[in-house]
Amino acid sequence: xxxxxxxxxxxxxxxxxxxxxxxxxxxxxxxxxxxxxxxxxxxxxxxxxxxxxxxxxxxxxxxxxxxxxxxxxxxxxxxxxxxxxxxxxxxxxxxxxxxxxxxxxxxxxxxxxxxxxxxxxxxxxxxxxxxxxxxxxxxxxxxxxxxxxxxxxxxxxxxxxxxxxxxxxxxxxxxxxxxxxxxxxxxxxxxxxxxxxxxxxxxxxxxxxxxxxxxxxxxxxxxxxxxxxxxxxxxxxxxxxxxxxxxxxxxxxxxxxxxxxxxxxxxxxxxxxxxxxxxxxxxxxxxxxxxxxxxxxxxxxxxxxxxxxxxxxxxxxxxxxxxxxxxxxxxxxxxxxxxxxxxxxxx
Amino acid sequence: xxxxxxxxxxxxxxxxxxxxxxxxxxxxxxxxxxxxxxxxxxxxxxxxxxxxxxxxxxxxxxxxxxxxxxxxxxxxxxxxxxxxxxxxxxxxxxxxxxxxxxxxxxxxxxxxxxxxxxxxxxxxxxxxxxxxxxxxxxxxxxxxxxxxxxxxxxxxxxxxxxxxxxxxxxxxxxxxxxxxxxxxxxxxxxxxxxxxxxxxxxxxxxxxxxxxxxxxxxxxxxxxxxxxxxxxxxxxxxxxxxxxxxxxxxxxxxxxxxxxxxxxxxxxxxxxxxxxxxxxxxxxxxxxxxxxxxxxxxxxxxxxxxxxxxxxxxxxxxxxxxxxxxxxxxxxxxxxxxxxxxxxxxx
Lengths: 347, 347
Fold this sequence. Notes:
Helix content of chain A: 25-40%
CATH architecture of the largest domain in chain A: Alpha-Beta Complex
Shape of chain A: globular
Pfam families (chains A, B): ADH_N, ADH_zinc_N
Number of strands of chain A: 19
Oligomer: homodimer
CATH topology of the largest domain in chain A: Quinone Oxidoreductase, Chain A, domain 1
GO molecular function, one term (chains A, B): oxidoreductase activity
Family (chains A, B): Belongs to the zinc-containing alcohol dehydrogenase family.
Keywords (chains A, B): Metal-binding, Oxidoreductase, Zinc
CATH superfamily of the largest domain in chain A: Medium-chain alcohol dehydrogenases, catalytic domain
Mean pLDDT of chain A: 97
CATH class of the largest domain in chain A: Alpha Beta
Largest interface: A-B, 34 and 34 residues
Low-confidence stretches of chain A: none
Distance between the termini of chain A: 11 Å
Structural class of chain A: alpha/beta
Radius of gyration of chain A: 20 Å
Cofactor (chains A, B): Zn(2+)
Largest sheet of chain A: 7 strands, mixed
Strand content of chain A: 25-35%
């Protein structure tokens, strides 16, 4: 089968590899019908050292179950399924609390750290299939596939940012980042009723989609100028919630600048730093809280899917490019160059 | 009048200064009948440079109103009052939300940064008297005075830690620090119904009081050994909430070690660091949240006072030493040497 490998920064290849297959009684084999490239894939694409490669790529997919292990009961060959970016058993104490990304099962993992599987491929072996896979009530050629595919990661991640930040109808929200997660954080904040949603981003087409998703204001300036603009829009105090969907230090510093006393910075962009200011002069003085982490998107699928099926939300609009597996290397470069917002792959 | 001044690390003096007096129509002058030394006073006592002194000291008191400005309406001469460690108007948008430590009024301040007033003294000018002072329904010689004095800071701060951490009857809690705030964080967690309360502290008399306040377990080991002990007590995963009542980096690192995935570190010890680990390997990976800050104790007085008046809680037990103003310099040294837990001052 064909699958995507990253050999190092800027070096993505699609190669023939041995077919994935069921190994354990709890596995399923899924033939992938839709996958995509994630903003988080761009971090290794910018910095991966050749000695850390080659790595299998991709953590989002929809596909058709082709085979199941003897213990799998919730899906069967022929079912169309979606998978979260994290493998979980959906039964441990953390999963029961809705924190599937901290699943206690020995086989729980992120696709990104599964050594021999990746979702930018023709097929994938899915561990803990009963916990990980969710059946979709449509066919593989449905026009809803792009939106349903966002349940794998970017919609659930934007929703997690908003939930972890406590967004409700009394909150003003700043969203930092105009990538797919940032835009779906806007959609999620709107869905949860936020009073004001300020999107910080510079890319005109993206911020336009952000307005369509519910942003009430767009601030294109960065740094001190951007912070001043958000403060101007909020009576001087900043917003109750900041959804930080980038993950680098300038984004964190921006969040510190626009958050209101007593407010929350909710991070879903994977931090590219370990140490950061959290002392008296940054978080502590005004009781600023910090929340977020890898989104337990499995916990949100049942809640979010009906809104897609009923057409109330169209998160699939974040896909502005579609390609086959051959086009994946170019898709990485297009996303890195910000020519594409998010690339849909039809293997 | 006599008042306490710190000239530098280890150098506290009680001197005669000009009498405090009402200056603004919103001021009150209060004759102090009970004050105390705070664990946070020990930070400058350990490190203050002589060029930063002399500084007026003390931010907790009960006293009798002696004079009021023309606009003061809620207290009158002869009233016994308690004051929070932060001056606030109790009417701005932040005060109305219960975040009095972020009061937007130009005169809002911490006593510790009021240049010409301090509460380890015979009297004090209280700015924004209507917002800051709360009348007490007892006399100055009541046996409840020590407990009521903790409404100024340490009880409200322990309570804030627990509230900001979301403690309820479903939570397991670790409290880091066996100072007055840590012990009253134990009491507060117990009051809010916590299922398990693990106190990390090494001082036998203090942890004994902690057990009396509600600690179910005491861990005296620190560092990796202490972390392992807490994990042993919690099925391996740590506690939902960690109340961090120290403020130095070892305490923060201990908090990271004992917090459960999806849990909260609630800090009320003033951080003695600015940068700290918050990236993928510390907070982010398991959706650990960070909360806390200077406690808006003014917001909690009405809720906590009845429990003291009715004898349901006795937070005043944290005072193990009483002195007059002359004994204040020795009181600092006793607290620094951990011979006294908390020193009550009867000026």
